[in-house]
Amino acid sequence: MKLYTRTGDDGSTSLIGGRVGKDDAQVEAYGTIDELNAFAGAARAAALAEPGMQRLADMLEEIQQELFDCGSDLSYASPRPEQLKTNGEMAERLERWIDELDAECPPLRRFILPGGTPLAAALHVCRTVCRRAERRVVTLAGERQIHPPVRAYLNRLSDYFFAAARAANFRAGQPDTEYARGADVFRGDR
């Protein structure tokens, strides 16, 4: 099988069950999720290169699998319920992971600047790309019906990436850099 088909040379692409323009909101949504998956893979590679980050790397691998599920659920022209892969349990598990990671870190007082260790910086990039993917899915949901667990998962996932970035910095002994021009905005109670 060849990697190229030439069928997209006219600016269109295939959905499961139809064809649309490559700039269609549906393609933009699942394409941004694919981009996020690539960044999550880079973050996972960084986690595997650091001692004490295996569990974080394992979480990221599961997230990559689930991002494929999200993209799959958005790639149907007319999905049937039995074809959909995402569910509410996925976002609930992310909440447990967020709580676990957040419990390791000192309380937040101010907004923090993205960065720190290379792993934490990669996770902050994932957070921002995840927010963009979520915005693309919200746009798509305004045009046609989507499977609601995808939107909930992406909303929770950006919070996960924030918690994971803070935990990566904390484990490495690298303090988060607070936004110096801001006031205290968090009370410090979890």
TrEMBL record:
Keywords associated with the record: ATP-binding, Cobalamin biosynthesis, Nucleotide-binding, Transferase
Domain Cobalamin adenosyltransferase-like: 3-167
The organism's place on the tree of life at top rank: Bacteria
Pfam families in alphabetical order: Cob_adeno_trans
Pathway membership: Cofactor biosynthesis; adenosylcobalamin biosynthesis; adenosylcobalamin from cob(II)yrinate a,c-diamide: step 2/7
Catalytic activity: 2 cob(II)yrinate a,c diamide + reduced [electron-transfer flavoprotein] + 2 ATP = 2 adenosylcob(III)yrinate a,c-diamide + 2 triphosphate + oxidized [electron-transfer flavoprotein] + 3 H(+); 2 cob(II)alamin + reduced [electron-transfer flavoprotein] + 2 ATP = 2 adenosylcob(III)alamin + 2 triphosphate + oxidized [electron-transfer flavoprotein] + 3 H(+)
Gene3D superfamilies (UniProt xref): Cobalamin adenosyltransferase-like
Record EC number: 2.5.1.17
SUPFAM superfamilies tied to this protein: Cobalamin adenosyltransferase-like (SSF89028)
Keyword ATP-binding: yes
InterPro entries found in the cross-reference section: CblAdoTrfase-like, CblAdoTrfase-like_sf, PduO-typ
GO MF entries: ATP binding; corrinoid adenosyltransferase activity
GO biological process: cobalamin biosynthetic process
Subunit structure: Homotrimer.
Family membership: Belongs to the Cob(I)alamin adenosyltransferase family.
Name used for this protein in its record: Corrinoid adenosyltransferase
Organism, as annotated: Paenibacillus albicereus
